[in-house]
Amino acid sequence: MRSETRAARQAQIEISAYALLEEKGYLGTSMLSVARHARCSNETLYNWYGDKVGLFRAMVARNAEEARAFLDDALNTQSHVLDSLRVFGPVLLGILLGERAIALNRAAAADSTGELADAVRTAGRGTIQPLLATLFEAARQRGELAFDDVEEAVELYLGVLIGDMQIRCVVGRLPPPDAADMERRSARASHCIGVLLAP
Questions:
Q1: What's the rounded Cα separation, in Å, for the pair 15 and 34?
Q2: Dihedral, 124, 130, 132, 136 alpha carbons, nearest 10
Q3: What is the DSSP letter of 62?
Q4: Which pLDDT band, with edges at 50, 70 and 90, does 1 fall under?
Q5: Residue 3: pLDDT above 70?
């Protein structure tokens, strides 16, 4: 199968998986139900994803791809870290507070097996946080930031940027912010990091 055709089929499979996830939850969504909804074979799903956990891990990874690509680019270009964070913030917030991430997190919270939560953690935060740590460490080496523990520095940034917004959106207590709100929040977070971790 051509890569373009496969990518299009995978996108359709993931649309079906999100629809079933919202309707039936993680436990109620089976590989067979996804295959039927997407009008593909069960064998194709297992060949491409391995199992249900693999399917949802791939969905989380695809959702996080834009943030990962941005951080890779920032590391390659070596822009000033505060400039990178100011642009990165809205990208990350858009992903974390988007419909797909909210659906995944709601389902993960209701999943008693913990499988989906593990997939969300490893393919999402587990991918993005190490890249942020590398970005912060490079900034420290260039004299742009000062801190003792890179993991604490990254946690500080994520705490200021995200706060409790994600959990409030997941439980329906807060509507997702608009683009202007995300820009303001990102500018504030990068400014705070520049002050708190000033060399």
A1: 9
A2: 170
A3: H
A4: low
A5: no
